[in-house]
Structure formats: C-alpha cells, structure tokens
Amino acid sequence: MGNEGSDRAREMEVFSAIARTGSFSAAGRVLGLTPSAVSRTIDRIEARLGVRLLIRTTRALTLTAEGQSYLAAARRILADLDEAERVIADQGAPRGRLRVSAAFSHGRLCIVPLLGDFARLYPHILVDISLTDAVVDIAAGQADVAIRFGPLADSALTARRLGETGRSIVASPVYLQRHGTPEVPEDLLHHNCLNFNFRRAEPVWPFRREGRDYALTVTGNIEANNGETLGQLAADAVGIARVGNFGVVDDLAAGRLVPLLEAFNPGDVEPIHAVFVGGANMPARVRVFVDYLADHLR
C-alpha cells in the first residue's frame, strides 16, 4: 500500500510536468527520466483508469477532458503533500514565515532591536513584523504571535508573560516653565493633557492619595494612537502625557522630560504577553521566537 501510494504520487508528478512543459522529453529532463519512461508512466495511468488523458500528435500534446480533471486533482494532491511535509518539518526545525504583530511604540523600541540577533540565530525563519496598535485576530490567521498589553480576554489562545510596564506622567521643562508645575492631580485640570484616542481608552488618569485610589478626567487638544507620539509631543512642550515607562526612558535620562506627581502615582502596571496558538502542533518558529522574547525582555 505504501509503495502504491508513492508510485501514484510519482505518476501525478510526471503528468503535471508534462502538462507544464508541453512534451514528454521536456518533462523527462525536468524529472531526470527518459522520454520512454515518461511514456510508460502515462500508459500505466491510462490503463488503470480506462480513459485517455492525452492526445499526442507530431505537432502538439493536448489534454482530454478527463486529462484536465486528472491534472486538477493531481496538482491539489501534490500541493497537499508538500504542505503536509512542510508542516511536519516545521515542527522540528525552525523555518518558514513568522508573522508578528506588536504595538507601535513597544515594537519599535523593544521588539525590533532584538530581531537582528534573532535572525542570526535562526537564519531559516523569515520574520514578518507589523507594528500596529490595532488588535489582530490570531485565531483567524492574521498573525502567528502578537504582543499584548494589559489584562487578556478569555480565549483558546496561549499566552506567555514577557514582563510588565508601569506608567508615568511626564512633561518637558520648557512646558513647565511656561505653564507651571502641577503639585496635586487636580492641577491637571488647568493643563493641556495629551490622551490616547483608542475607543477603549477613557480620558481618565488614575491616582492614589492617602491610600485611596481615584481617577481624574483630563482634557487636551491632541490625541494619538500610540505612546511614542504622546511622549514626543510632551518632549516638544505641547502638553503633559501619561505614557508607558519603556517609551520615555531615554527622554527622562536626557532631561527632555521630567516625571510629575510621583507621590500620587498608583503604581499600576500593565502585564505584557506574547499571545499565540499553542498545542502539540505549534510550529517550532513560534516556540523559539516566544522563548527568545521571554529571555530578552525580562
């Protein structure tokens, strides 16, 4: 049964090569067979099926209607065989296209700088990264791995914790010189507070005073879909922003930004996860990439 299956796959390969090249001799050259061996293969298929697949003349080679049907089926079966072998091989050796989705700021500042070393370690993996603050549907095949912030919704996906990030309120010394430094959270009501424009992001900033947590609604004249933009606007003295710490480390160290209202910081942190389809059939390229992120982002 095993030899018969492999023989039939070889026959389909020969027939497909004939249809692709247009002659027995050209198909033989592609497959390393003599024209007579190619001819015997076609005779064997036609005898078993009891139909004529090809009409051969001195000038042309034409597929019959049955030949067209056999060709379509052969191509589909050969493609399925190639895909099955690729999937099995991929489970063992890391290779193939790896589609990664990461938030714009965190991706540019934290994920992209790691890709060079990862590519050198795994040269047979093609990393296809998209930086977007939109939530992609992994279950629908839009990405293999997505980096997510905050609490995760219940789903059948697998999540691996990569770390966490806090948030700080920041402004530039120039802005503070022009508009004054807020001493208590309520002072922000008189400042230009830059916010996110996500539908899920409300214009409220959390604070803690004497052990009690509360939220303050703030307003401003610019909104953006990523923290890097808000941090840049704050550094340019446009207003005050509340952003992830990872995005403003360099600006804080250089003095382009200063932290505000630290005594009222509630200490809230957002967990960072890699989310993917797990299980026994998880491709090796996904496993090694998530392992690499976990090792280097902690």
From TrEMBL:
<dbReference type="Pfam" id="PF03466">
    <property type="entry name" value="LysR_substrate"/>
</dbReference>
<dbReference type="InterPro" id="IPR000847">
    <property type="entry name" value="LysR_HTH_N"/>
</dbReference>
<dbReference type="InterPro" id="IPR058163">
    <property type="entry name" value="LysR-type_TF_proteobact-type"/>
</dbReference>
<comment type="similarity">
    <text>Belongs to the LysR transcriptional regulatory family.</text>
</comment>
<keyword id="KW-0238">DNA-binding</keyword>
<dbReference type="Pfam" id="PF00126">
    <property type="entry name" value="HTH_1"/>
</dbReference>
<dbReference type="InterPro" id="IPR036388">
    <property type="entry name" value="WH-like_DNA-bd_sf"/>
</dbReference>
<dbReference type="GO" id="GO:0003677">
    <property type="term" value="F:DNA binding"/>
</dbReference>
<dbReference type="InterPro" id="IPR036390">
    <property type="entry name" value="WH_DNA-bd_sf"/>
</dbReference>
<keyword id="KW-0804">Transcription</keyword>
<keyword id="KW-0805">Transcription regulation</keyword>
<protein>
    <submittedName>
        <fullName>DNA-binding transcriptional LysR family regulator</fullName>
    </submittedName>
</protein>
<dbReference type="InterPro" id="IPR005119">
    <property type="entry name" value="LysR_subst-bd"/>
</dbReference>
<feature type="domain" description="HTH lysR-type">
    <location>
        <begin position="7"/>
        <end position="64"/>
    </location>
</feature>
